Here is the input.
Amino acid sequence: MDDDMMAVFRQEATDLIESLERGLLDLSDQPGDRDLINAVFRDLHTIKGSGAMFGFADMAAFVHAFESAFDLLRSGQAAVTPDIIRLALEARDEIIGFLSEQADPDGRRAAILAALEAAVGATGNAVGTAPLPEAAPTGQAHRLWFRLTGNALALGARPDLLLAELRELGATDIRADLSEVPALDALDPEVCMIGWSMDFPNGITRDAIDNVFLFNDVDLRLEAPQAAVDRVPVAASDPVPVAEPVSAPARKPSEEGPQADKGGATMRVAAERLDHLMDRVGELVIADARLLQLAQQSRDPALMAAAEEISRLAAGLRDTTMRIRMVPVRSMIGRFRRLIHGLSETIGKPVSFIVRGEETELDKTVIEQLADPIVHMLRNSVDHGLESPADRAAAGKPAEGRIMLEAEYSGAEVVIRISDDGRGLNRDRIRAKAIANGLIGADTILTESAMNALILEPGFSTAESITEISGRGVGMDVVKKTIEGLRGSIEVQSVEGRGTTFTLRLPLTLAIIEGLLVEVAGERFSIPLAAVQEIVELPADRIEEDGSSDFLDVRDRLVPLVRLRRMFSSPGAPGEFQTVVIVRAGETRAGAVVDRIIGTNQIVIKQMSRLHSGVRAFSGATILGDGTVALILDVPHLAGVGQGVEDRRGVAA
Amino acid sequence: MTNIVELKPAALMTVVTMRLGRQMLAIPASALREILDPLPVTRVPTADRSVSGVINVRGAVVPLAELRFAFGIPEEPRTDASKMLVVEVELADEPMIVAISADAVLEVTELDRATMEALPPKGSSWPHAFVQGVFRTKKGLLLLPNLSNIFASLASASGTAAA
Here is the structure.
């Protein structure tokens, strides 16, 4: 088997394992749902089949036992219990271990299987744990004849495995039927001309047989003694996953309900290629800006028309490419549900986890980097946010805590809210801690939101006792740093006794954005347009700074001014006309004072070098149409500087 | 920096020599990517003066480093002889591209590592961590800077202005 096929197998297996996890978690919420049990069973069956085909014999055996346990659930001989779900999730993790070829020196896998069988057996109607699927012997002997048809072999069917499975169902006297095997020169090696016949002395059901041939094109006859011939070609409902490496992902149509692909063909592409594509588009956008500039200088109308046409095409290409890279929030929800499920059991707090807006899409880079911070926040919510069941009862709340994750679009941003209905932040404790850590002075007066924001500072942990789950004093500051690294922002709202909400705002995409190009003392800077709220003229009497509190009254709201000339130690004095660009990061606003606005343009964001990691004023750089580099202002930092102005006013007042 | 050296007999090392003020510096050829005529520099406000700008090297934004401040060499106005040397150095085990400004690029030459001398423990204003060694040549003292250490110290330094 070559590496490509192996890669496809691994990808498919990963999908199946994810689907399996989703199914199991759904099942823990709706233990009686037969469709879910069937979906889980199908996933297991497919993993087993393709695993065996790719030489993961141990894994296939393991999954087979796993599947057998679920078969009892499927046939209604045992009922789903939380214990079974827990063990099944553990078993699911072991499948990943098999795939990454991890050894199992402690016999953990066997232990999980034994426990799973015992758990299933315990709920069953004294059926025991025998791994016999569809154990419904009729007592009447049956005779089965089958032959694989079509290109079953080419699609990866393995008659030996099928026969092994049939043997486990109780087949005896298995004979090969060579009657249709042609002479050697007429033999097509890709077609299986051999048929097999066998006896089931204890009888067998049609369902059990169909299960064996779930993924194969087959001609079969199942004959009861002296009964009529029952000859129905069974069409494969789903191709064996390895069959078509570049075709649609082998998702079971029924398992995802409304989330399933809506009929359109999909294609799997290596993420790396998308990154290359994005790089190329980025270069195109830069080249396009240059062309446009040259065309305008030439004043040749034909050239300008052509340049504008190319510009339009480039913009379209950019949008399409960015859409390709969009990934739904759903893609990371699975691990969150799993995390909460596990935590809820470990620390004994029942939790219901509600997800809204999981179809909201973000750039894949954002999603990738977002998963860890969200895991951290969810962990905090379960561990610190939610009270113990006893405390909840005392507070008159339902025993089951509620954690909600909501995602929605808001302009060019995506807002993700993570909220719990727990005890809320204890401001006195935060205050005491912040004073002890020297974050604030003993007499500092802070607004509620500023107080909440303290928990995002380095070295701050509100848990009085460090628990196993969280609270080692690292964390929320790292979360904040990651979010800001994604050019997003984070805020904390909390009502004591009612719960805490973290609000993340993230840009839709990272690679290319609309920028507002401004000039300060002859130097050009770009400000992400999504963060720009409005642009106003600086009144002539405010050109010079006036002391420590520097504010502008914008429609009855005071906006702190950040004088970029001063911040950047620019040479010369400000001109007669200065412009204020009002930016917003989260709920914080600031007015950046610039010499003039040049215009808007598409900018391709380049990371700043590590040599500039200490420079916080810029979040990146971009290359302009004329080939020079312009720095991109870091809006959260600007807002933070503005906040500093505001704090100074608080002290002065 | 070792790949090329290993192919040479014993201790020979190919370097490009450059001039900063009156000081000659050697840049190992194995680290050198290209030598450019000066490009337009975009100032990075609030950054340390040793990396006060960035340049566009064929679509990549590359920091421009001034080694002179590390060795206390006075600034010189840019001339026709000024160049930018694009080098690749390891920083925290990851390769990084940096441009170094030079008042002039002199020649490509081979140095015998055996003739390299350590910096005398006293009597030098150069920080020892920034120097791999020095060579005595007919034209004067040739300094082999420790680029990784110099850039690591820049990467850990925060911006000068807290803003």
Residues 125-138, 227-263, 464-474 of chain A have pLDDT under 50 and may be disordered. The radius of gyration of chain A is 32 Å.
